[in-house]
Amino acid sequence: MSTTERLRLEYVTDPAAAMSRLAAAGLFGEYVMYERPGEWVFAADPLGSVELDVHELRMVWEGQTTTSAWEGSPASVIDRALATLPLDERQAYGWIGFEFCAWALDATAHLHPRTALAHLMIPRIEVALGEFGVRISGATPAETCDIHDLIAASQESELPQPHPADIHLDPTGYRDRVTEAIGEIRSGRYQKVILSRKVDLPFVVDVPATYRLGRANNTPARSFLLRLGGLEAAGFSPELVASVDEDRVVTTEPLAGTRAFGRGHDLDMAARADLITDPKEIVEHAISVQTSFSEIAAVAAPGTSAVSDFMAVRERGSVQHLASTVRGRLAADRSSWDALEMLFPSVTASGIPKREGVDSVFRLDGAPRGLYAGAVVTISPTGAMEATLVLRAVYQNAEGAWLRAGAGIVGQSVPEREFEETCEKLGSVAPYVVKA
């Protein structure tokens, strides 16, 4: 059997169930599952990896590890590291944490020396599902049979039962932190900041099952499921931080302005009408789009930057947002990693201006964000890239499991309403958490 097998399997009516079953089987080691429009990819059993923390670059290839100090920007370090590996036309998959932004925004003083910044891996096996059927690359004949059996069995399985989490407890003092940020904004220190709160879960989570149940109840722009470097996560991303396609068109999708969704047609329409007429939400969205446009223009060829779908309303699970799309054609002397470095972190997950907003996040959010408000990343051998914003997610490591959500704070913010917004966003994940 060839290393690539392409079959049209009519029984794959639930790709999320198939991806969840492949992840839960435990047969393929570490993995990253990524859903983009029209395609689901399960990438597993790393041949190699690139890991970056504050002081060290670690590169692994076929069991051999090299470590070195690094300097410069994290984006350029990873770009160069990937270029030295014998990828043989393979894609890379992984994640970058929120703290990845600290070098570009002069915030490294806030970081612990062992803070993880990024973890990318190059898979031996890829399983892709889409209208083309099932495409399997890199698997042995025996593994190919196992993959077929797992996918077939997944289509007959029932949805898992949730163990909903209480999202209204707040030991982090979120309202008080919002009040402090409002004071800083009104004193002129910055215009906007996204402050978040962590909700610890008092049990071990079945992350693949949570992904399947959550995906059945969400309408994400992208979704992901991963187990990589001691971290498990599953999420339903509302927007792209950045994408660069094969034609070098760079895109970002700022979402800012939020109301609840999924409470019935009349309530949803009333919330939508309130959203599109609320001065606070309109201002928050407009300044986010303005920042995104400036960032795209900084890496795009002159005259190619444009905004489309300005202030459209997009439903994302338990919430609806004001949304716009900003695009430009990447300048000839710029790379995909340059575009990501410019656009990261998403303006809708950091603040405006970004430098001051990120400083406020580090000061007022307290603990490191890690993957929250970071990105799950795919990189092709040609330089095409997608970096999807990590929000609406569940996270788990050896220390426990948790959720996290934030809200955009501006001068007109009301702390109680911002807390309510975090609850609305947590509603995209919390009701679907499955206990292990």
Q: What are the SSEs and their pairings?
A:
Blueprint (H helix, E strand, L loop, with lengths): L3 E4 L7 H10 L6 E6 L2 E15 L2 E6 L2 E6 L4 H11 L7 E5 L19 E15 L2 E5 L3 H14 L19 H13 L5 E10 L5 H10 L5 E7 L2 E7 L2 E5 L4 E4 L2 E6 L4 H13 L1 H21 L6 E11 L2 E11 L6 H8 L7 E2 L1 H11 L10 E5 L5 E5 L3 E5 L2 E10 L5 H12 L10
Antiparallel strand pairs: 1-8, 2-3, 2-10, 3-4, 3-7, 4-5, 6-7, 6-18, 7-8, 9-17, 9-21, 10-11, 11-20, 12-13, 12-19, 13-16, 14-16, 15-16, 18-19, 20-21
Helix pairs in contact: 1-3, 1-5, 4-10, 7-8
Task: Indicate the overall shape.
Answer: globular
Helix content bin:
25-40%
Number-wise, the strands total 21
Distance between the termini: 37 Å
What does the average pLDDT come to?
Answer: 92
Question: Which oligomeric state applies?
Answer: single chain
Count up the helices. Answer: 10
List keywords for this structure.
globular, 21 strands, 21-stranded antiparallel sheet, single chain, 28% helix, alpha+beta
Report on this model:
The protein is an alpha+beta fold. It contains 10 helices and 21 strands. It has a 21-stranded antiparallel sheet that branches. The two termini are 37 Å apart. The mean pLDDT is 92.
Briefly, what is this?
This protein has 436 residues and is of the alpha+beta class. The chain is built from ten helices and 21 strands. The radius of gyration is 21 Å and the shape is globular.
